[in-house]
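Escalation from tier 1.

The customer reports that the assembly of two entities below gives different structure tokens on two consecutive runs. Tier 1 could not reproduce it. I'm attaching the input and our single run for tier 2 to review.
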Amino acid sequence: MTINTLTKGGAQREQMYCLRKMERVIVAMQDPDMGMKMRNQRLLITVIPHAMTGNDVIEWLIQKYNITEEEARHLGGLLVQYGYIYPLREPRSLLLRSDDSPYRFQTPYFWTSSRWPATELDYAIYLAKKNIRKQGELVDYEKENYSILHKRINHTWDFVVMQAREQLRASKQRRKADRIVLECQEQAYWLINKPCPGAFDVLDLGPERCNVLSSRVALNADHYRREIEHSRRALGRNRVKSSICLESFMKYSEQYLHHDPIMSGCLPSNPWISDDTSHWTINTDMVGIPTRLRVERWSFSFMELLNDSMGRREFMIYLEKEFSAENLCFWVACEDLRHGESSKIILKVEEVYKNFLAPGAARWVNIDSKTMERTLEGIKRPHRFIMDDAQMHIYFLMKKDSYPRYLKSELYKNMLAKAIVPQETKKSVFPFMRRQRHSSPSPAMVTQATEDDGKAKGAGPTGTSSTTNSQI
Amino acid sequence: VLQNILSLLFFLLPASALTTGIYMIFSTKPEMATQEIQPNETLTNLKAESDTLKTKLEDERAKLHDVELHQVAEKVDGLGQFIMKTRRTLKGHGNKVLCMDWCKDKRRIVSSSQDGKVIVWDAFTTNKEHAVTMPCTWVMACAYAPSGCAVACGGLDNKCSVYPLSLDKNENLAAKKKSVAMHTNYLSACSFTNSDMQILTSSGDGTCALWDVESGQLLQSFHGHAADVLCLDLAPSETGNTFVSGGCDKKANVWDMRSGQCIQSFETHESDINSVRYYPSGDAFASGSDDATCRLYDLRADREVAIYSKESIIFGASSVDFSLSGRLLFGGYNDYTINVWDVLKGTRVSILFGHENRVSTLRLSPDGTAFCSGSWDHTLRVRDRGYHLGYIPKRTTLSG
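Tier 1 run:
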């Protein structure tokens, strides 16, 4: 009764991929040469063959995948949770114990992937069997499910009871050990496919996803034509040799190594560890003297300089000295146009034209004639991206010319010399005493304050009161 | 008439001529509008042609691949094993946490869950500052606005809504809610662009879209994925005009935001791509997939350049992010763990336990001091390196 769920849509499909991989692990575990050693395990008075201990499973995983015990316990635990290995003692507790608790491999007939989703009919038969076999063997949620099913598939109930009786009769003919094994296997299957409400449901899935085979996207002629067009364009593109590209990753991680708190730590201390927010306060936008790392970073790339509001400010001061500040002003105005509200586009384009592009404009920018022509033509039908060409031209002008000169300037060098290198905070004398974690003003409030213009606010307290309780 | 002749040629010439010879003609062809299918241009043939071209493209890409990343990285010091410690555990969601995002202030976060709750926390103090209940379940996407004054979220309602964050504790945030994006299927991811005024979304309807927040107007839509789109990330590039998306069609596409065109496409994963994230320089991006691997794609080399996987990792990666220097790649997985990879050498430097169910979302804080993971176990954890304070002295690394 194997349904090929891989071709079906649905969230099950993503799980199937993992289930198949787990099955490969399980098969490897049972390999006659490289697999686990299995032996008979005693369960009360019966001897169950082909069983192994929790310890065996963990040892094997450590050996096979060269992993730590913690990881092996975790991986083994997943195999139990998904029903590929089940415990013989305490069958309702689907945990892998790292001791001599006995476990067995689930038979492929009952693999999660073989019989998924579990059918109502099968479940009804299983519950009926339990009910017939021993009165009161059904637990609460099973009793509930039983009566729900009884109502829902009442028309086939005779068949259900008949099947249940038949299966019970057949099992009585088996050896006791085999019967116990089959009962354990079946129980394990249903513990996973119909777990107790509130218990961990390993087959809990996210919302349905569609793949290519069951897609909501119209895979029509247009779609393939688009793909073809894309491939053709891609074939003609310039590519860079791997050896050159990959080298840049080395350089980048080397350059930023000391700026990466997880790699190199941060000064004076990482706020998340020490509960001291100094690291954040000394790196704010409006701080008087910046840190050395911060100023150094401006020299890594033009983008780094512009992305830091202080860097941008410093650069502007430099450009003013050079009488080319209009370039940066123009760039900022173009960014504002590109990322601003649609409703303000026409207004902003007019402003930009008036201030930077019109003949005799107060801050006229020097763009090459072709770009200027194109831009002026485009302004007649203004849209968000109309300044892109001009903006890029000015950006690269600054990057190639003003930026390198700024880095060599006295202004920058003084900044670097003045910049502070914070002292590392020493380990607290009383490490068990946690510092108070101070709140900070919400960014929402900061903006509201500037908007409200000093109007008295009735807003909730978000000042510097130190509290560690939830406020909601 | 030209159209028909070309279609005929397409049939008569062998495949190699198709791609080299006719390419020259087709490359000057104007943009195709919706056309009817010509009698000799059936859907099967179109698909076959597309597949042939894709194979040819992979061959071209392979030609310039003269060295592997881990070979180039041989001269770099290894990292050893890292210990990461949990610094904060955020409890408050009553159901699976599906998504989270950091505020630019480096300490606040927004998180969303299956039961429709969206919570804004000051992760540093662990205080909850705002909470809103969406009218839908499975809020799979949430994002913090760059200004810190609003959050965006959406999920099974097929929409992306923006909630301005009010500081009046009595005000119901839902009252000022603004509906921005409208898709025809679930919202899988959303992100503000450089300002509060535009939002980029991806959806189960197979498309991505760019929206104007103020008017709710659709600015650009992106078609090209053949199935649900699950994730997206904006490029930190100088010209700031591209983004990457990943989907259930196993493809990762790089898009031009201005024209709506797909610039580059990569199809090497064996299953759904759950997460994409740019390398800090913008020259590459990483992806996490249900095939239990994370991969690195270089945009200039135009190919996959690294695979991060281990035989013992069976479950899919749901969420990936880089450390600030790009040396480490963090992956949250569906087997409840977080694996931390050395991006250059391809080895794993840490495996983190602690969550009791799938890790669904993972992001580094804006200044890289910590990373936050959200899980189906209803909690969020903020973690970082397990050393105590301290600054590791300059190491001598071999010069390149």
